[in-house]
Amino acid sequence: MADKRLPSPLDEGALRELALRYVGRFATSRAKLLAYLGRKIQERGWGGEDPANPQALVDRLTELRYVDDASYAVMKSASLARRGYGARRVAETLRADGIAQSDREEADTQTQNEGWTAADRFARRKRIGPYAQARPDPKQREKWIAAFLRAGHSYATARRWTDAAPGEVPEADI
After folding, report:
1. Three-state DSSP class for residue 26
2. Is the per-residue pLDDT at 174 higher than 70?
């Protein structure tokens, strides 16, 4: 069995390389990058002369616009809306990703504008309401409503979609 070598402790150069490789591969937020760097320092240890300061590195990458929370929020909310998730689920995801409220304004507006389309995508993907083969029994209807609620849609939206007859797409709210 081969002897597995432990990776060497990080220094400023190695930490910078890890950060650049991470932002090069993944769209990320400041909080997610900071958590990643903290995890790497904890795993490998610190061998640099000065104490580890991942926050300064994250701030520098933000200045250089390698990390932009507002753009990340818009991109992430659009991605979730395309998958059929509602405003509440999008907001929870952005909050979990460490996006500040001030950076979420454009994303929130976009999510509100795309809400009905997202509900349509969700219903189509799950074969609910107008995309179902037949009307549901009461127990199935409750399951459909629960699925809509877990996806972040409002109760009123969930009811309108689940109560729609197969083949009859409900009209959007005005």
Report:
1. coil
2. no
